[in-house]
Amino acid sequence: EVHLVESGGGLVQPGRSLRLSCAASGFTFDDYGMHWVRQAPGKGLEWVSGITWNSGRIAYADSVKGRFTISRDSAKKSLFLQMNSLRVEDTALYYCVKDMHPGGLNYFDNWGQGALVTVSS
Amino acid sequence: DIQMTQSPSSLSASVGDRVTITCQASQDIFNYLNWYQQKPGKAPKLLIFDASNLATGVPSRFSGSKSGTNFTLAISSLQPEDLATYYCQQYDNLPRTFGQGTKVEIK
In B, which residues are within 8 Å of A47 by CB distance? Predict the structure, then answer.
């Protein structure tokens, strides 16, 4: 069974940084693309970033481009999201999501339970 | 960015009713569309991929289709456990974008 467990969320001041981690288990991590998708309180879903199985293709939403960096570590079977220059509007529940395929960034197949990031002074 | 517009934003129906949700893209996305179900307090779940293919374990009362530029998610016989918000998502272009969601309530 696929398990995705996010960590690293919390309360942070605007302009500061935070790093989210996602520990993956129950599948061959190296074989699949991965994503971060967020949901602001009471709002809809917003795709944040995606990375293919070999990190050969990486993409970001315009709202985070230049501030957030996605990465993955096959030895640790983990996905990361480095978030810099955080803004109040980045406040959301951040989901770690597995893709259905290795080379695409198309399908949000399995989801973690989310890590809450609150940006406030 | 491709805009995804869902309708209605919410609906209320009785158990056993047929329910349909529509999603329209701001440009042609071929069949590059997925549907997700998010139950209250839970993470979303993939329901349908490539416009009409049921994801593993999804009950057969759910179906997806395309007509012209509109995509439809149908629930043939609404069940109490279908209480949820449903989202469409396109993968024709980056960034990937979602519809605003349709909240389904049970009368």
Answer: 89, 95-98
Angstroms from B16 CA to nearest CA on chain A: 27
| Rounded Cα distance, B39 and B37, in Å | 6
Compute the mean pLDDT over every residue in chain B, rounded to the nearest whole number: 97
Q: How crowded is the C-beta side of B88, counted as CA atoms within 13 Å?
A: 34
Dihedral sign computed on CA atoms, order A103, A51, B99, B47: positive
- B97 — pLDDT class (breaks 50, 70, 90): very high
A-B contacts at Cβ under 8 angstroms: 56
For A110, which residue in chain B has the nearest alpha carbon? B45
Q: Tell me the pairing of strands B84-90 and B33-38.
A: antiparallel
The pLDDT of residue B100: 98
With residue B21 as reference, give the H or E element that holds it: strand B19-25
The residue count for chain A: 121
